[in-house]
Automatic annotation (TrEMBL):
Protein name, entry field: RNA polymerase sigma-70 factor
One Pfam family linked to the record: SnoaL_2
Domain RNA polymerase sigma factor 70 region 4 type: 107-157
InterPro entries: ECF_Sigma-70_Domain, NTF2-like_dom_sf, RNA_pol_sigma-70_dom, RNA_pol_sigma-70_ECF, RNA_pol_sigma70_r2, RNA_pol_sigma70_r4_t2, RNA_pol_sigma_r2, RNA_pol_sigma_r3/r4-like
Gene Ontology BP terms: DNA-templated transcription initiation
Species whose genome carries this gene: Phytoactinopolyspora halotolerans
Top-level taxon: Bacteria
Keywords from the named record: Sigma factor, Transcription, Transcription regulation
Self-association state and partner proteins as the record states: Interacts transiently with the RNA polymerase catalytic core formed by RpoA, RpoB, RpoC and RpoZ (2 alpha, 1 beta, 1 beta' and 1 omega subunit) to form the RNA polymerase holoenzyme that can initiate transcription.
Domain SnoaL-like: 177-274
Length: 302
């Protein structure tokens, strides 16, 4: 396989694997293994009419297998599980610059965890990439009729809890900046007004750093909790910057030496924040650069 084919196919393959697994590291492993298998097929003289279709098939099948294995680990995960964030500003890899749609948002990737690996594959291929049922059937080795049934079942599970999104990116960014300013000023009334009635705050420490065992729900409770986090950030000289991750507004939290400590994404709909997802597990941040030791900074143990 030529370097040109590698560069051309890798973004597609990573896009599929990341949506399937919610993990940058696991998606990269799948893509690498897929290229190895494709190269072996080439050496074995296997004729490939469409490199894109072949890459999609190999990547999807490997991602299904990887997800089946990952689900066992995630059932034993300490605390709340959140996907690894993708931030263009901190990631120079062009394959990681996914098209921003709801299927790469943190909330949606969490929701996809409720599907079986096969349901997730069919859903991702149809909803995110628009593949025809006949093509999906060939990829997952099921009949087209069966794939229709699988997608119907997956949509039913998703639609019951499907997040709502505000499509206006400039308005999202403005709300994110206003929210951070209110939080830093300790303006609890302003914070509460910017939070939806059903807002939820979820933190992922993975047992590596102190994190919530259960989500915080409700505007008053979330505002108070955020107020406490901001006080802690000021006490330890942390820096908080607005950014975007997974196509949504985000905050990047840095230690005083610039090392990354957390990425918090927010889901916005109808002019208010409906969800905050705080990724603090250092194992899920290393792809973004140097990660700081939050335990040492806080003087605490996980």
């Amino acid at each position: 396989m030529s370097a040109l084919q590698y560069d051309t196919l890798r973004p597609l393959m990573f896009s599929i694997a990341y949506r399937m697994l919610g993990s940058v590291a696991e998606a990269e492993d799948v893509v690498q293994e897929a290229f190895l298998r494709m190269h072996k097929s080439e050496l074995d003289g296997v004729a490939v009419d469409s490199p894109d279709a072949f890459a999609t098939t190999v990547t999807t099948r490997l991602a299904i297998d990887a997800l089946r294995s990952a689900r066992v680990r995630r059932e034993q995960y300490v605390g709340q599980w959140l996907p690894e964030p993708l931030m263009i500003s901190d990631d120079a890899d062009p394959a990681h610059r996914l098209e921003a749609d709801e299927t790469v948002s943190t909330a949606f990737l969490v929701l996809l965890e409720s599907l079986s690996p096969l349901e997730r594959a069919v859903f991702v291929l149809r909803e995110a990439f628009g593949y025809e049922y006949a093509d999906i059937a060939e990829i997952v080795e099921k009949s087209p009729a069966n794939c229709r049934q699988i997608l119907t079942r997956a949509r039913r599970a998703i639609d019951e809890r499907r997040p709502r999104f505000d499509p206006d990116l400039s308005r999202q960014a403005e709300l994110s900046r206003g929210f951070l300013a209110a939080a830093q000023d300790g303006d609890m009334d302003a914070l509460t007004r910017l939070l939806a009635d059903d807002v939820v705050f979820v933190g992922d420490g993975g047992g590596k750093v102190p994190a919530l065992a259960q989500p915080v729900r409700g505007p008053i409770q979330v505002a108070r909790f955020l107020g406490g986090l901001l006080k802690q950030a000021r006490r330890t000289a942390m820096r908080i910057d607005t950014d975007s991750a997974n196509g949504m507004p985000a905050w990047r939290v840095h230690a005083s030496d610039g090392a990354l400590l957390a990425v918090m994404t927010m889901e916005i709909a109808d002019g208010r924040i409906r969800a905050l997802h705080n990724q603090m597990n250092p194992d899920k941040l290393h792809h973004l650069g140097t990660v700081g030791d939050l335990n040492t900074i806080l003087g605490r143990t996980p």
